[in-house]
Amino acid sequence: MKQKNNKFIEYMNELFTDAECELKFGSEFELLVSVILSAQCTDKRVNMVTKELYKKYNTPKDFANMPQEKLEELIHPCGFYHNKAKNIISASKDILERFDGKVPSNMKDLMSLAGVGQKTANVVMAVAFKGDNFAVDTHVFRVSHRLGFAKSNTPEKTEEELKKAFDKNLWSRLHHQMVLFGRYYCKAIKPECEGCKLKDMCEYYKRKR
């Protein structure tokens, strides 16, 4: 198992030497909003929307005082705009009222905010606060199961398996690397298997041959 893990880590480091979150943001709060918007939406589209959005609205106060219909219009291209707008406004109010206007820096408080589940909280903790977190999105879930690092059928249990498989100091970096690997190489449809150095340990590749 250790040999398999080391091979995987080496390949991720080879492909993505400077892996980082592809969402564009200028503050912890902007990151939180962007991650909420990224649910079932590409980072590329979120960045297109927030590039204009954050020019005028970029603080909890800005969003807490905004009519929901207006925010829905501004974030419409990100999809699920009704729930996302509702959650962003609610989270903004909570940040103002309960956390002195600052994004909380622990999992429990983050997950008490509207629209913030475990994955979102993990991303904010890892990116904004440099924590050791292993966020499991669709890409991480797919890659970890194809390569046999996880067998659970939920993101939460998959996260537990990945944390057991890899050293804590690698969690955040591997999360970013696995997101990029899943996004650009180990894609849901037509993954680039032939040139992949991990195909000999990939259960998905073995099944499709």
- CATH level 1 name of the largest domain: Mainly Alpha
Q: Helices and strands, in N-to-C order? A: HHHHHHHHHHHH
Q: Could you name the ranges where pLDDT drops below 50 across 5 or more consecutive residues?
A: none
Separation, N- and C-terminal Cα atoms:
23 Å
Gross morphology is: elongated
Helix content: 55-70%
How much of the residues is beta strand, in percent? under 5%
What's the number of domains?
2
| Major pleated sheet | none
CATH homologous superfamily (4th level) name of the largest domain: Hypothetical protein, domain 2
Radius of gyration from the alpha-carbon trace, in angstroms: 18 Å
Structural class: mainly alpha
- CATH architecture descriptor name of the largest domain: Orthogonal Bundle
Number of strands: 0
CATH topology of the largest domain: Endonuclease III, domain 1
Q: Mean pLDDT, rounded to whole units?
A: 96
SS field, number of helical segments: 12
